[in-house]
Amino acid sequence: MNKSRNLIIIIILLVLAIGGISFFAFRQVQENKEMSELFAIEKEEMENEYTTFANQYDELQIQINNDSLRQKLENEKLRTQRLLEELRQVKSSNAAEITRLKKELKTVREVMRSYIAQIDSLNRLNEALVTENKAVKEKYTEATRQITSLAEEKKTLNEKVALAAQLDATNISVQAKNKRGKTIEKAKNVKKIAVSFTIVKNITAQTGERIIYIRIAQPGNEILSKSASDTFTYENRELQYSIKKYIEYTGEEQEVTAYWDVEEFLQAGTYNVYIFADGTMIGESSFKLK
């Protein structure tokens, strides 16, 4: 009978373990996919702008009779097309090349503005050319609208990536202990409050030293704190904390325990515990004292 029960327990644990591993694997795949999409959008944004400028040089050449200026426009168009081809050959992950082509794009943009200003000046007296120039500007506006739309999509993906990079606390356990380290429930005998939790694995989160802030709220919502100056910033306001804990985060799952030494009178009732990191609440729990 015991062997059968143990076998069932082992099977259940294996199923839960496999489910947990599958969940985290799926989550990491999603996060990597979003980051790849973010890089691809940035490259597509630049390609659209280079293409728009190359087309505009063709349209500007139609508007003028000045052979010298037309040749300059042709040279700039060829240069823009060359840069566009370089961009298309670059992989989205090549940050150095993307950065260089961004700087080149800024120069192309400034040169285009300069030529548009020159042509506007030359064609002020020609009504027909002014009308054509207006059409060019409308096309530029439409291209800008498309670029803006891509920028908004990029911003949304940035927010998703930032959200994915946040820490997350699970398995939160809060225990009140007496002077001998025994877990108790009577408020008058509590000498220490132990807060334990697990920081989950997150390959997209920044590694290195992190500060964990823990707020322990008494039944009347007053925060246990050693000093009025013990505060941290959360959503543009300063909050008092009970415990400040430094950890060295490696990106892997990590167990954390922090302690509050009781030096004040504790009343009976429900206590709420809130855990913060990087300006974000990453977990919460509660416990009761009699």
Structure, explained:
The structure is a single chain. The chain is built from four helices and nine strands; from the N terminus they run ααααβββββββββ. It has 290 residues and is α+β, with helices and mostly antiparallel strands. It has two domains: 13-164, no CATH class; 169-289, Immunoglobulin-like. The strands form three sheets. A four-stranded antiparallel sheet has the order 6-3-8-9, with no helix packed on it. Strands 1-2-7 form a three-stranded antiparallel sheet, with no helix packed on it.
What is the compact description of this entry?
The protein has two domains: 13-164, no CATH class; 169-289, Sandwich (Immunoglobulin-like), CATH 2.60.40.10. The chain has four helices and nine strands. The chain is α+β, with helices and mostly antiparallel strands and 290 residues long.
